[in-house]
Amino acid sequence: MMLALATPALVTVPAYAQTSKSAACEGVALTGADCGSATAQSSVDSLVATVVNILSIIVGIAAVIMIIVGGFKYVASGGDANKVSSAKSTLIYAIVGLLIAVLAQFIVHFVLDNVGV
Prior knowledge:
The chain is mainly alpha-helical. The protein has a domain at 46-117. The chain is built from 4 helices and no strands. The protein is rod-shaped, with a radius of gyration of 30 Å. It starts with a helix and ends with a helix.
């Protein structure tokens, strides 16, 4: 009975080499105190990306609504030159706003991807 209990104690367990935290960070290409500089930068990057994504969604929804409103204004203008002009400017401004939101997405993601710290 004692031999059965003592047998697991005689089994060899592989020993793993202890490495320092800086060596581990260098292995994954991170530097700084506690590898925190890259982590802090990535959290700022993700915060900026999240804010831009939320604002882009809001602007996109508003632009689509304004395009619909501009279309209704155009249809309901009845040939009145002032109403047609107002409807066209509503459509143009909504489309320009939508294009600016799309370009903002591209610019922010381009900058975040290419500013490797």
